[in-house]
Write a structure and sequence with these properties.
single chain, 249 residues, mainly beta, 4% helix, 53% strand
Length: 249
């Protein structure tokens, strides 16, 4: 289950995936020594309904069907990659803008609102049934200067088995204040640090027991205190939900 959260930070790849879509009439790049090929299109050019195949090095073999305005995707359309991924939705000035869905070859998908090629709000739905719903914030890779949108801010990650984390995300993973609820009734609230849902705070259990301290994966792990229904406190060190020195039942 943790693997899907780790994957969440890597799946947002749209960036400027159509940021360099050629205006149909552009045949040469700014570098006179580099010849860039325009797409091969059929239909109402340069404005209207078209079908296009891209031939330049960056998009060789990609296809587009939909609306064109002045030689660029604009309106509604479908852009299909040679990898098997595709984007379906609204375009403006050659970029996804508005409502759309990006479908990965493995059936993972992004659904939501896009702005200049980046998803800004919506959901990530994994093929295994896990899903994230929330906001996305642009970040810049200092080395490559590439821009991508990652889940950051307030969001909800729901696992296929019904477990759920609701709270703060940063750089695609839980980081900050949140609540992790398991289907067995366990509820841990506090500060979370990573995809493994390590953190510290308070956990309550369906048995009436309460735990205050460090936890890992949403269970007591580290230094903490168990508090029973009468308020009696049992401090100690915990591993995988078990108080050290206490015999397993």
């Amino acid at each position: 289950m943790i693997d899907s959260i780790r994957k969440l930070g890597k799946i947002i790849l749209l960036g400027s995936f159509l940021g360099n879509v050629l205006v149909f009439s552009d045949v040469f790049s700014l570098n006179a020594q580099e010849v860039d090929l325009p797409p091969s299109c059929q239909g109402q050019l340069p404005t209207g309904k078209v079908r296009c195949n891209y031939r330049d090095a960056k998009r060789a073999g990609d296809n587009y069907v939909g609306d064109f305005l002045n030689g660029r995707p604009h309106g509604t359309g479908i852009y299909v990659y040679t990898s098997g991924d595709r984007y379906e939705g609204e375009f403006r000035n050659g970029l996804p803008n508005g409502k759309g869905t990006y479908i990965y070859k493995n059936d993972d998908r992004l659904e939501g609102t896009f702005k200049d090629g980046l998803i800004v709000s919506g959901k990530v739905i994994f093929a295994n049934g896990d899903r994230y719903t929330g906001t996305f914030v642009p970040v810049i890779d200092i080395g490559s200067k590439a821009v991508k949108n990652e889940p950051s801010g307030r969001g909800e990650f729901t696992f296929a088995n019904g477990d759920r984390y609701v709270g703060e995300f940063f750089a695609g993973v839980p980081f900050g204040q949140g609540v992790f609820t398991r289907t067995d009734g366990t509820r841990c609230q506090g500060q979370f640090f990573n995809p493994a849902l390590d953190g510290k705070g308070t956990c309550t259990f369906s048995t009436g027991l309460r735990y205050e301290g460090e936890f890992r994966g949403g269970v007591p792990h580290g230094v903490g205190t168990i508090i029973d229904s009468q308020g009696k406190r049992y401090p100690g060190s915990f591993r995988n939900g078990q108080r050290q020195g206490e015999k397993s039942k």
